[in-house]
Amino acid sequence: MSTTTANSKHGMVFGALVAMALSSVGIVFLHLPGLTQNIAVFSVAFLMAGLVFFQYMDLKSEGKLIYWIMVIPFVLFAILVVLFIPDVCHYSIDFLKVL
Amino acid sequence: MDTSHSEAVVYPPGEGPTGHYSGPSDLTTGRLGVWALIASEIVLFAGLLGSFILMRMIHPEWAEKARELNLYAGTLNSLVLLISNFFMMKASSAVADHREDDVKKFLSLTILLGFFFLLVKAYEYSGEFKHGNFPSSGGFWSFYFLMTGIHATHILGGLVALGILLNRAFHGTLESTKGRVALTGLYWSFVEVVWIFLFPLLYLLA
Amino acid sequence: MSHDSHKQSFISHYIFSTDHKMIAKQFLLLSIIMACLGGFMAYLIRWEVAFPNVPAPFFGLVSPDKFNAIITLHGTIMIFFVGMPFLAAFPSNFFIPLMIGARDMAFPKLNLASFWLTFTGAVLLVASFFVPGGPVAGGWVGYPPLSASSEFAGVKWGAALWILSLAMAFFSSSVGGLNYLVTVISLRAPGMTYSRVPMTVWFLLGSAVTFFFSVGPLIAGAFMLLMDNMFGTGFFLPAKGGEPMLWEHLFWFFGHPEVYVLFFPALGMGLDIMATFTRKPIFGYKLILGSTVGAITLSFIVWAHHMFLSGLNPVLATPFSITTILISIPFAIIIFCMFASLRHGAIRMELPFLWMVGFLATFLVGGLTGIFLGSASADIYLHGTYFVVAHFHYTLFPSVFFGGFSGVYYWFSKMYGRELNKKLGLLHLVLTFIFFNGTFWPLFRVGIGGMIRRIADPSFYPQYQQFANWNIFCTISAIALIASQAIFLWNIVWSMTHGPKAVKNPYDSNTLEWLADSPPPHGNWGAKLPIVTGDPYEYSKPGEAKDWRSQAQNL
Fold first, then answer.
1. Is residue C544 part of a domain?
2. Do B33 and C187 count as a contact with CB atoms less than 8 A apart?
3. Which of B1, C367, C402, C505 is deepest in the core (most CB within 10 A)?
4. What ipTM, to 2 d.p.?
């Protein structure tokens, strides 16, 4: 990939990231109901993270080996959060009312 | 892997001991090492953020405390880090094109913005201290100072690495280890991703 | 680094060397020193349990608070400063490059930093003996709220130093593990495809990867505990809205994979030794690798079996019992593959092989007793008793001592160019085997009888009087066990300089490290790298003159 297209690509990615960062802050001022605000803010965060991972860090052009190394931490994150819920959140029926 | 291979040194120069490189062709040892480091760091932040997410779910009152945070400073910091990451990418492509003076310029800008991020963070901390919010004043503040503290330490580590590269750039010895600018860029983007999750978790949750 | 001509000063050759072999010997030396310290503490613990309130020779009276500190330090030292360096760091550093035909690790300076991090951790831990308030005394697991604030544990600086020394050990092992991963993937000799990599390297790599994927949450937990101790935060203090169970989860999320990190190197070395001394390929190369990957995957979802009785939500008891019982399947497959490898073998009864059989025998007892503890219903009775103490000593001790010593006796000639004394080695094996079983086998009985662990003065409890004789028996065997290790220390110190000269390949083994000189020079292979043409287990191939065929023919 010649560097000229790389530079313009970086520029576009940067622009998108700044727009998303400001929009996630903007969502707060909309005063949406709790859960929808959290979901909206997090989806923007996941989009930004995906963009940085695949564009800036060139995860797209890496081999299968790197994909395997990178997928493991996210699987562990999911295991950790889900299996901690009963103890840290004192899992009980009214736990769902918190969301 | 044909076995008639003579013991030619096919190892990328300056990257480590001479020997036979047997890894995937599009990968160097440094890049694989940094990706593995990022993977183990993600598990560290997984433990940290996972604990915070769960504690935050059972402490609804932390939402009021989150509003005491300086949202403008947080947003400014997000932008500062994005810009710093952008310059880091420009520095990496400048190294690829051997544009020495651009490399120096963009590396210095990345470092300056990194320090500015820490400055804004210090300003925020002092603001919290003035309002009487210390790590010991409740769960939310303990997590806030712990998580932003660990993230700031990672930024500091990145700045040290960038400083070394800038020093090499000024002494013209960057050529032998030019692969490391891209690797530091990888690490810097990872620190950026951590803040991308940290910022909404602390500042924006309802 | 690679040219051998330059003259290295004493400092850069021995102290700050970036040669993977010198770093391996530094790890070996550190683990031996810390094993002496940990062993002395084991003697004190056993003495206090058998003869309560009787001053222990060489130490004096082991009062209850000293007892708690000694138990904590015994656990921490033996796992992080003996187990990890002796099993994960020393064989990985020395044999991963040699067995895959590399000249050194991928990141030599990082490898140097990895040793000096562990060394600093060890120094910090020893320093914590002498700080005001004494060393940490909350058990090697450091459960809050006891460990989270000095007003409960009465120990402030000791706890902070303990946490920092653990953090050092974690960074060192994960940085080291990263180095081994990159080395195995990118520095294999020409022709060394993944299916030709020996088992030792696979298991050392499995151990390293399991470590650096599981240590993250505990580093986060360690920072939280440090802040609780030093800055008055309340992560784990219920009074301040914290959650003590959060520490236990973060700790054991790392804790259980950690016990497999200690166990895998012994398995890997055992398999390679098995192949060499039965003169035949091991049974089921791919089956063993598959089971190892299965075991590593399962090891990340079993941790709560350590917490059945510490307030774990009953909802989790059943799933974790199921996964714990499930994980014994991959390990059973690996152990039975080792037994199957013995069949039809032209077995050479030599020291490394005998140590490895000792490992198999004792580890099997440990593995099977784990199944009782794995199911929540049985654990309700057995948790916290000496049954647990006997179980984990029957898994850790065989891995570190029997597995580790089989490696040392097998490769000593390769490391130092001189052979160990075989008679002393056999004596050391026999005594260790007898006294190890003498020390820990009765503890199963004492544990089932209900005696709780970590009690300084059992005579205080009338229901434990029935075990007084067993405890005395265990203490005497423990003292004899510790004493018999002196034979090994003398053997290595003497043979290092006065042992008979070693040949390149004393046991006619196939793997690559036997093609290098003993001890291998800087850069391992001189001018030409080995070109691998065969797999490591081509022994007794029909129709061949010799019963072995080295992996590389060009050296």
1. no
2. no
3. C402
4. 0.90
